[in-house]
Amino acid sequence: MQELTHWINGKHVKGTSGRFADVYNPATGEVQARVPLASREELDAAVAEAAKAQVAWGATNPQKRARVMMEAVRLINRDMDKLAEKLSSEHGKTFPDAKGDVQRGLEVIEFCIGAPHLLKGDFTDSAGPGIDMYSMRQPLGVAAGITPFNFPAMIPLWKMGPALACGNAFILKPSERDPSVPLMLAEIFQEAGLPDGVLQVVNGDKGAVDAILDNETIQAIGFVGSTPIAHYIYSRGCAAGKRVQCFGGAKNHMIIMPDADMDQAADALVGAGYGAAGERCMAISVAVPVGEGTADALIERLVPRIEKLKVGPYTAGDDVDYGPVVTKAAKENILRLVESGVEQGAKLVVDGRNFRLQGYEDGFFVGPHLFDHVTPEMDIYKQEIFGPVLSMVRAASYEEAIGLAMDHEYGNGTAIFTRDGDAARDFASRINIGMVGINVPIPVPLAYHTFGGWKKSGFGDLNQHGPDAFKFYTRTKTVTSRWPSGIKEGSAFNFKAMD
Fold first, then answer.
1. What is the pLDDT at residue 485?
2. For residues 59-80, b (16+ Cβ closer than 10 Å) or e, as one string?
3. Which terminal residue of the chain has fewer beta carbons within 10 Å of its beta carbon, N or C?
4. Which Gene3D superfamilies does the protein's record reference (predicted)?
5. Are residues 191 and 271 located together in one domain of the fold?
6. Which runs of consecutive H residues, i.e. helices, occur in 256-378?
7. Catalytic residue among 112, 166, 246, 281
8. What is the tens place of the pLDDT at every residue in 386-422?
9. Are 204 and 294 members of one domain?
10. Is 281 a catalytic residue?
């Protein structure tokens, strides 16, 4: 069995804690590797080495740092298939979906090539007699990222790319469920010219997370995961004086107006609801048709599409629609919530509880489920299921529909399908949710905009990637300078306003 490592000072390093976690093949249920879980001492040692390496990296001019990003883009493209293959084998995603995972992370590294422009400060000439003022954006020092299992390439790249481009050293604590791709990315960045020690990959569980929170050298933490853990990291990190951004759970609503193209809406719902087995924070998990006629028309179109979904391992070909969920525990939790929906009175229109895949009976596959007549007090409506389960909540009016999304505790993403421009503009303006799609089911912004939810989906003032990332990973220093003009006026003891 393969024993994975940490990545410290530019090389693979075996763990010394004696603690390990199993890494499964989700399609077969078999353990394919084990990953070391770092002790506090291992984490602290990696941070200390990163702090030493950061001094020279932070002093490297932004253009040279951008060239490392440029070379990393080339190398990631070169290794795209190899990265996607490994990602699929540990996460369970289909091969095309795994390539998309890598690609969306790659786009942020492409954006980071613009670091010289993004790090430019401001300058004011002659703010006063002989006085100039200017601001500089400077790195924080050492930053850390704690990333989730569902995007083992994209989210680490979203975190490490801007942090490194800004001149920081970076400690990555990836998910212990699928840790191989982050280690491969570390190798790529070293080949691209990143100095040893600037990027450290430390595998671990809650013990490593707490060590990151307690380490005084780490100045900033970025996290993506569940809302309870996001709140925990945000609260403890801020209390320790760190800069923290945390992104949590979601319950994304898609409103379907009576004038919408029902076939287009149904196709969008199937892709957004069941793609990646629903293990996406931007998945659409709640469909809200407006009017009984809209709901009936939508159900009529959804059922045959869902029943035709092909579920299987990534090795079965590119026509597989989605693969297994990541662990047996995840599968059990999804099925538990499905049972709660039945018990609480929702109508299970498509029942995937008895799904079995011949030859993969021990894999973590979950069949597709579709609920109708879901109400807001049900657990399947309130909780993030993170599985291939779509719930339909029927709304009598547009105001009722938008109220459902606005009243939910999560505010990550939402969408509306309509031909009415006025309704779309009103929806985009009023909705209290961070990312909005208009006839777009998964409104994930491109790299040059920022990604982030509202309410209990996001904690912190700055979002991921885009300009916000460069603000998050730098501090602004403002300098007021005055050079003598040759006339000595003596000391001044009052704070004089500038003329």
1. 72
2. eeebeebbebbebbbebbeebb
3. C
4. Aldehyde Dehydrogenase, Chain A, domain 1 (3.40.605.10), Aldehyde Dehydrogenase, Chain A, domain 2 (3.40.309.10)
5. no
6. 262-274, 292-307, 328-343
7. 281
8. 999 999 999 999 999 999 999 999 999 999 999 999 9
9. no
10. yes
